[in-house]
Specification:
The chain is mainly α. It contains five helices and no strands.
Length: 87
Amino acid sequence: MKRNSALASIRRRISPPIESLDLSPRAYNLLRRHGFESIASVDATPDSSLMLLSNMDARAIREIRRAISIWRYQRWQERGFPADGLP
């Protein structure tokens, strides 16, 4: 049991889940419904592809992109504002 929680913790650190983002329930459910589980998978998907998802609109995409930007900034802050810039 302890090993599973350690593995889950490592996975969350390497590939953080979309639950880590501060999203509205609507935006979160849109992503989950279409199989997005990690922040990296959403971030790698172009806006034009996200717009093709059912019920996705420009407002939800702006919310998602903003939440990812804020999440990245917070990680950068946690690392002590390294000189190499944002992740």
